[in-house]
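So, can you check this record?

>
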Amino acid sequence: MKSFQLLFMALVCTLCSSFIADSEYLTYTLNPKKQNIQLYWKDDKGTILGNFIELKKYVEHKNNTLLFAMNAGMYTKDLAPQGLYIQNFKTLKNIDTSSGSGNFYLKPNGVFYLMKNNDAKVCSTKDFIKNNDIRFATQSGPMLLINGNIHPAFIKGSSNLNIRNGVGILPDNTIVFVMSKTQVNFYDFASYFKKLGCKNALYLDGFVSRVYLPDQNWIQTDGNFGVMIGVTK
């Protein structure tokens, strides 16, 4: 029995991604050094993918299987990324350091990015330093957590409720993707990332938020997006 338990624990420890059951939040974690995660916007012909159905077709055409997908930040009316977008080391949209209205400009906003060595990072826009080792990056806003602190503009008990999704990084480099199953305010959403152990977390979007996670029978194929996150095998 003891040997069986040890074998079971070893198998559990080798898992590179997991789904956390929660009545309020859909939470998907993964180790980017063990699982293939990328950002997607256009196909090889330059056509915007726009939704999970087209993303699924695209990765299957390359003999891959789509395990998880989520919209990866705000976008303009023509489905272009709003702010910085780096794909396969190429900067396709420059970083936006200007001021404006709306959630994107509720500063500090920030950047989620993946390095050449598959380290994952979330940082505020002002702290972002571009270099040639950044393979993927998407800018959004506002930051949810900054060095362990909830964004100063968020109000506990706020009636500003919406479906929300975001991304955070745990101290061991694990990436945490979260979407609320019901409407939630910014303060409570940020608090959930803090509860999970994230030091930095970034808001991705609101009512348009969708997730594709067939292993948990969570398949939302409606909606149009700009950049998407995809995990494949």
Notes: Residues 185 and 214 are 27 Å apart (CA to CA).
